[in-house]
Amino acid sequence: MSDLLDILTAAPFWIAVLRIATPLILGTLGVLLCERAGVLNLGIEGIMVAGAFSGWLAVYAGAPLWLGVAVAALTGAIFGLLHAFLTVGLALSQHVAGLGITLLATSLSYYGYRVSFPKVDTPPTVTPFAPMHWLDGTGLDILAAQTPLTLLALALVPLVAWLLYRTPAGLAIRMVGENPQAAEGQGVSVAATRTTAIVAGSALMGVAGSFLTLSAFNAFFFNMVNGRGWVCVALVVFASWRPGKALLGALLFAFFDALQLRLQTSGLVNVPYQVYLMLPYLLSILALVLVARKAAYPQALMKPYRKGER
Q1: Residue 83 contacts residue 33 (beta carbons within 8 Å)
Q2: Does an H or E element contain 157, and which?
Q3: How far is CA 245 from CA 196, 248, 249, in A?
Q4: 80, 202 Cβ separation under 8 angstroms
Q5: What is the DSSP secondary structure assignment for residue 135, as one 8-state letter?
Q6: Is the CB of residue 65 less than 8 Å from the CB of residue 213?
Q7: Are the C-beta atoms of residues 130 and 75 closer than 8 Å to each other?
Q8: Which of 39, 107, 144, 309 could cross-link 135 (Cys pair, CB 3.0–4.6 Å)?
Q9: What is the pLDDT of residues 290-300, one digit of tens each?
């Protein structure tokens, strides 16, 4: 028990929690924006891969780190625009379109990597974001050990909440996700609002991917997203489509993930390592089941809207 307490009270553990949570926060906010507008975006897994690759490739080609992040956001926005065309413009199945986006974005990224580096066995590296040492001595040692992208992710949580609940644009997003007919009756363009939300949300997904190659690691390699996109989709349900609870959900999953990594190395419990790997997912599923039963989801989620139909 004392060994477990040592793990939980050590600063490196909480530094790891915040680092693991960062791409989940960004991705979950992106999914939340899309679903608040009534569109399920299962393209997040592929968009994160594309964002990770495009941002890293831009920096490898000589671009500044922040320009690499912008490239990743633009890449995500482009795939978001394609998803919006399929689901809003053509009113196709959101499930099928999202999975298609994931397959397309992932395949294009891997193909682009092979074409760019045909004879490379080890992925080329870039110089990633440095920790925010300017916060040293302020009492924020855990935050000081993070990179600016973590600070960006944390700042976006209240910003997205303010957008959704304190601005006319946020009201329009929530209206088209709850009752698009009523929104259209009030002069709100359902197609334009949903498209804007999808593009903005997908841009955040691209930034989430860029964190992996420009902050957490310094290279791009296959399967580095490793299901984080699907975790973000589940976290939105856990959060009841609220930004503040999305932050808590991302931190909760990151807590379990960081804990299982340290339990593996500590040898406190002699069980197969696969049990540790399952731990964050099993506990997250349990939390999801307990919370999701009372979640109030957007009433028009996954329902295509055609102007003039009732």
Answers
A1: no
A2: helix 148-166
A3: 23, 5, 6
A4: yes
A5: G
A6: no
A7: no
A8: 144
A9: 776 777 789 99
User: What is residue 309's predicted lDDT score, i.e. its pLDDT?
Assistant: 61
> Residue written as tokens 């793990």?
7
**Over 90: is that where the pLDDT of 81 sits?**
yes
pTM for the model: 0.94
The whole-angstrom separation of Cα 239 and Cα 244 is 8
Q: Is 292 exposed, middle or buried (0-12, 13-18, 19+ CB in 10 A)?
A: middle
User: Measured on CA atoms in the order 260, 266, 269, 270, is the torsion positive or negative?
Assistant: positive
End-to-end alpha-carbon separation of the chain, Å?
Answer: 61
The answer to whether 76 and 31 are in contact (CB under 8 A) is no
* Nearest Cα to Cα of residue 190 among 179, 203, 202: 179
Largest CA distance in the chain: 65
Distance CA 39, CA 303 (A): 8
Residues 6+ apart with CB under 8 A from 43: 79, 80, 83, 97, 98, 99, 100, 101, 102, 105, 202, 205
Q: Provide the CA 31 distance to its chain's centre, in angstroms.
A: 7
**How far is 45 from 43, CA to CA, in rounded Å?**
6
Return the pLDDT at 130: 93
Query: What is the rounded CA–CA span in Å between residue 238 and residue 32?
Result: 11
For the segment 98-116, the average pLDDT, to the nearest whole number, is 96
| Per-residue confidence band for 206, with pLDDT thresholds at 50, 70 and 90 | very high
CA 194 vs CA 76, 90, 178: distances in Å: 16, 13, 12
282 — pLDDT class (breaks 50, 70, 90): confident
Q: In 3D, which of 163, 236, 166 has the Cα closest to residue 200?
A: 163
**Residue with tokens 């791009």, as numbered in its chain:** 220
DSSP for residue 293? T
Cβ(275)–Cβ(248) below 8 Å: no
Position 12 pLDDT exceeds 70: yes
Question: Treating both helix axes as pointing N-terminal to C-terminal, what angle do 243-266 and 11-36 enclose, rounded to 10 degrees?
Answer: 140
